[in-house]
Amino acid sequence: MKRSHSSSLIWMHLIVLIYGFTAILGKLIEMPAIQMVWYRMLIAAAGLFAYLLYKKEQILIPGSQAIKLVGIGLVVAAHWIAFFHAIKISNISVTLGVTSSGAMFASILEPMFFKKKIDWLEFLIGIFIVLGIYLIFSYEVNYKMGITVALIATVLATIFTILNKKYTTRFHPTLISFYEMVGGVMGISVYLLVVNGFSASFFSPSLSDSSYLLILGLICTAFAFAVSVDVMKELSAYTVILSLNMEPVYGIILAFFIFGQSEHMTGGFYAGTIIILASVFLFPVIKRRREKLTKKNQHIGKRF
């Protein structure tokens, strides 16, 4: 059934809220980050596979494309491992504050991947984001390692987003995500086999961890992704981008109410985070206005 624009927007923000809740689960689950990501990707792969069967979507794809998607899945796995590890060695607020700087890395890496000129607007926004990160680093000296790992997670997130854009235009997004989840599970499994990381305790998580993992894999990953793909059909790319920018905001607010004092940061942290978020929010607004002005000037030029 086709959703209205208002209904789609509400669903989109609900999905972004769920994405923000992912960080909460990362702190609640007591197992190491790599184990958590293995379970998350395994559960998500199973959920996405069931969804594809329910929708009677194509599952088998050419081998060369499958290998590329599996490879991207390794990058996704590495990003999630770094993301959850950053939460465990710092906290949710620091991790989300830093990972909201992805736009800066995209402005640098995307031109390299697609061999195009660097956009001056993107570069300018990147400068403000660097200032925000510098403030966070300066004031949160106890979390320098967590900030560094969060930056690594952000770079990896930017890379897999660019790779998805470059290599995955031929297939349904849910199918792409399924192969990437499978690739992540395979990659982590090979690593754990090499380092003898599998053990009896690995396969016997606590009851609370098991419950949180099911929420993480099925609701925060498989369900959220499937619904987001559906509602995006009714929303403009501009609206989607603005909505997704709310993820760190929702996550930081949730963390403050759930974990209280452990998520209370210095004024410098909040100043840096506000600079980063303001830059991220203003970017699509300024870019949209610039595109409108360019079209208007082109139209005037044609008349004369």
Give your account of this protein's structure.
It is a single chain. The chain is mainly α. It has one domain (5-303). Helices cover 80% and strands 0% of the residues. The longest helix has 37 residues, at 267-303. The radius of gyration is 20 Å and the shape is globular. The N and C termini lie far apart (48 Å). The relative contact order is 0.19.
The amount of helix comes to over 70%
Number of domains: 1
* Average pLDDT figure: 85
**Separation of the first and last Cα atoms:** 48 Å
The SSE order reads HHHHHHHHHHHH
Total number of helices? 12
Structural class: mainly alpha
Taking Cα atoms only, what radius of gyration do you get, to the nearest Å?
20 Å
Q: What is the strand content?
A: under 5%
The major sheet is characterized as: none
The stretches of 5 or more residues where confidence is low (pLDDT under 50) are none
Number of strands: 0
Indicate the overall shape: globular
SSE layout:
Blueprint: H1 5-28, H2 33-55, H3 63-89, H4 92-99, H5 102-114, H6 120-139, H7 144-167, H8 173-194, H9 207-231, H10 237-244, H11 247-259, H12 267-303
Quick rundown:
By secondary structure, the chain is mostly helical.
Key descriptive features of the protein:
single chain, 304 residues, mainly alpha, 80% helix, globular
